[in-house]
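User: What would this chain look like folded?
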Amino acid sequence: MVSVSGDTPFPHRPRNLTIRELGIDDLAPVFHLGEELFTSDRYPSLYRIWDEWEVTRLFNTEPEYCLVAENEGVLAGFVLGTVIVKASWTYGYITWLGVNPQFQRQGIADMLVDRLIERTIAEGARMILVDTDPTNTPAINFFKRKGFGNERKHVFLSLNLTKHDYYSKLIAYERDRSDRRP
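Assistant: Here's the prediction, encoded as structure tokens.
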């Protein structure tokens, strides 16, 4: 655990900020902050959906890559990551990064990402990956400033199954079936 205080390049950085591993008591606050930040109206094409299982799965499987920033008992932000081991390379991957709106633009995301990078390097990672919605300009600018590059556009397609013929037939079938039950 590292505590940050004193003069920093971010003049408004909280003085009593601590970066530490996510603990069991942090699961609900992290989940609720993620609910606030990762909404379907803001990011309708997220291929991973923010839910309680995202937080608990990573906490249970790779807690060393789940970090929180806390200031005087208030959740300032979090980063959830993983390490992927392939035959020739080990990759770090930033799965989720979120900063409490009242703590944004104070260097919290910088510290969380830096700490996660340190941990993935210690695990043997030679590269760290991150993806975001292509319209999320603040995130793209942040990661570019952190040194991420080699940007690739990713095409994400969806099909609303409620508009599919089979969907309406299945609904009608299930309705008929339940009507026939005694």
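Residues 1-8 have pLDDT under 50 and may be disordered. If you want, I can go into more detail on any region.
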